[in-house]
Design brief:
By secondary structure, the protein is of the alpha+beta class. It has four domains: 132 residues, no CATH class; 84 residues, no CATH class; 48 residues, SH3 type barrels (Roll); 84 residues, 2-Layer Sandwich (Alpha-Beta Plaits). The chain is built from 14 helices and eleven strands. The strands form three sheets. Strands 6-5-4-3-7 form a five-stranded antiparallel beta sheet. Strands 8, 9, 10 and 11 form a four-stranded antiparallel beta sheet that branches. Strands 1-2 form a two-stranded antiparallel ribbon. β5 and β6 form a beta hairpin. α2 packs antiparallel against α4, α4 runs antiparallel to α5 and α5 packs antiparallel against α6. It starts with a helix and ends in a 20-residue tail after the last helix.
């Protein structure tokens, strides 16, 4: 309270001194004139700047995006013009009267007003607006009142010790602010780079995923090192921490490290990538929809997601139905009775299956094969190629079986069912 009273008394004495000084009154007049002139200039040039920078609605090139970005800062034109004119007036005042405290205070106020407009009208809702409201505005207010240097001096004098690491309260606050901004910027840069890489059609999916992960590691690694430098932390301590982390990985995080390295190998080889339909030895099968540093996510035909560690793709046998192309061969089993002329069956079935729109003629057309002589039927199978993966033998298998049934019915060929002969011994005579 005593310090606050001292500051209030000092502010009162300064205000009284300004009001009683002709030089100070002259500076107040220059401030008012600078604001009025800045307002007139802003009113005059704002429509011109807006018309010049506004691109066509359908423009998407880099200059159009830069113009739209620059237009967001148009509300800052008035306070920045007032700041610039006040800076010119400050030089004139100091040359004439040898002092310029009042006009310097006004210049800082105009800069604070620019920060207010930036937070209110320019920064988007979310993290940046939150940082502007609770960090930028208080700092600019202290700067406008002339208390910023005193506050930074006191914070810089306060020491904080964490083991062998020493830093000041000012560096801690600066690190929190800079860390928040750096990692927000890193997250934004990572999203932008990932979007750009995903939009490149010339890159293989595996190369694309590897480039995305490499850019993510590089961005956040650079942000971490820059943050350490801003906070003034000696990087040798980080090296010691890295060595301890390496020991921890070797002792307790072997599986995580193995999965991470396996993920890198998968991306480098490119034999398994997003969009492939795979089947593992453990029975997991589905389409790869996502590859992370630790695991691959498989989506089954019924919409379920299976998370499979990357190590399983390296150490076990993996059947990839999509790696060599989209064509896959399937077969449909059927039987006919022993009264059938089986020499006619292949032509009938192959012709019926060939008419289905999804059946391919290359690398081979439908092939009907005799598989064996059963207890009650002659067993056949027709093999066919399709462009894609069968949905649990329902996507293509069901239409093929319908085609076989209709073709056999149309040809008058019977599909048998089991027959049994029952012999009754010692049965009474009828």
């Amino acid at each position: 309270m005593d310090r606050l009273q001292h500051w209030l008394d000092q502010a009162t004495d300064t205000a009284v001194g300004w009001l009683s000084s002709p030089a100070a009154l002259m500076q107040f007049g220059l401030l008012i004139a600078a604001y009025i002139l800045a307002r007139l200039l802003a009113r005059r040039f704002s429509p011109i700047v807006e018309k010049t920078l506004t691109p066509k609605p359908d423009s998407v090139h880099i200059l159009a995006r830069l113009s739209r970005f620059a237009l967001q800062f148009l509300p800052l034109l008035l306070p920045l013009l007032a700041y610039a004119l006040t800076a010119l007036g400050e030089g004139l005042t100091r040359a004439t009267f040898g002092s310029g405290e009042v006009i310097a205070f006004g210049k800082r106020v105009f800069l604070f007003l620019a920060a207010v407009e930036l937070v209110r009208k320019v920064l988007p809702p979310g993290f940046l607006k939150l940082m502007g409201r609770y960090v930028l505005l208080p700092v600019m207010a202290l700067h406008a009142l002339g208390f910023l240097d005193d506050a930074t001096t006191r914070l810089d004098a306060a020491q904080v010790n964490l083991g062998n690491i020493q830093f000041t309260a000012l560096s801690l606050i600066r690190g929190l602010i800079a860390g928040s901004l750096l990692f927000w910027l890193g997250s934004w840069s990572n999203r932008q780079s990932a979007g750009y890489l995903k939009a490149q059609p010339d890159l293989r999916p595996a190369t694309r995923e590897l480039a995305i992960k490499a850019s993510e590691v590089a961005i956040f690694g650079a942000a971490f090192l820059l943050l350490m430098s801003i906070m003034g932390i000696d990087l040798t301590a980080v090296a010691v921490l890295g060595g301890a982390l390496g020991v921890g990985i070797g002792l307790g995080l072997q599986q995580i490290a193995a999965n991470f390295v396996s993920g890198i190998i998968l991306l480098l080889e490119g034999q398994t990538t997003v969009g492939d339909y795979v089947e593992l030895d453990g029975g997991e099968k589905g389409t790869i929809v996502k590859m992370t540093a630790r695991a691959c996510v498989l989506e089954t035909f019924d919409g379920r997601w299976i998370v499979v560690p990357n190590e399983h793709f390296i150490t076990t046998r993996v059947v990839n139905y999509s790696d060599q192309g989209s064509a896959n061969r399937y077969e449909a089993l059927f039987s006919v009775s022993y009264e059938t002329d089986i020499n006619l069956v292949p032509d009938i079935i192959e012709g019926a299956v060939s008419k289905l729109p999804f059946v391919l003629q290359a690398p081979d057309g439908p092939d009907c094969e005799l598989r064996g002589f059963g207890e009650s039927s002659v067993d056949f199978a027709v093999e066919y190629w399709v462009a894609g993966i069968d949905d649990g033998k329902n996507k293509y298998g069901s239409p093929v079986l319908f085609a076989i049934w209709n073709a056999l019915k149309e040809a008058g060929i019977e599909m048998p069912y089991p027959h049994r002969v029952v012999e009754l011994r010692n049965a009474p005579a009828i």
